[in-house]
Amino acid sequence: MMPFGTVMQPVKTRKSLARCPLPWQRPPVSTPLIFKTPRTVPRTGDDSAARGLGRFVWRMTGWHQPVVCAVAILTALLNLIPIELQRRITNEAVETQDIPALFWLGGIYVAVLLVHQAVKFCLNMYQMWLSESAVIYMRGHLFSLYTGTLDAAEQAAGSGRAVSIMGPEVDKLAGFTGEAVSGACANGAMQNVV
């Protein structure tokens, strides 16, 4: 008999482990977020590396990159509106002591801040969605290439070399794919406006 309060754990056999899908093969967890599933990157048919960093970014993000750039530019431009509103509040409402104008401009200021933060949140979600999609694709692709080159003895040993090499490098490169071009677009928009 088992003592009270202990829970029996299911025994994992070789057969049950073989049925367990790999992390990138599991169905996505249902969440109420905008981007529920990762972007599927189409396969090219060959296993060669991309010819350059720009082509790699385009391959991982595709036509989502111009959209995320447009949202980044919109965020950068929305960043300037509160500064103009602060000037108008000071010049028009405070100096003339116009209380209704102060409340009106203050309400517009709060609304613009809320819209700016919502657009900024959507931009970050979009960038992270592209980055995480690239991480999932690259890990799956590299894992399939890596396991195809191992012999049976090395596969059985499971030394963990692949994970220690793939983890940090893939995360850095995939994080770059989601933010690089849109960050440059936002900086360019800010410099041209200011």
Overview of the molecule:
The chain has 194 residues and is mostly helical. The protein has one domain. 69% of the residues lie in helices and 0% in strands. The protein has seven helices and no strands. The longest helix has 51 residues, at 99-149. The relative contact order is 0.14. Helix 2 crosses helix 7, helix 3 (64-78) packs across helix 7 (161-193) and helix 5 packs antiparallel against helix 7.
Radius of gyration: 25 Å
Integer tally of domains: 1
**General form:** elongated
Q: State the helicity in percent bands.
A: 55-70%
Oligomer: single chain
Intertermini distance: 76 Å
Strands, count: 0
Structural class: mainly alpha
Treating each run of at least 4 consecutive H or I residues as one helix, how many helices? 7
Largest sheet: none
Q: How much β-strand is present in the residues?
A: under 5%
| Global mean pLDDT | 77
Uncertain residue ranges = none
Topology pattern, helix = H, strand = E: HHHHHHH
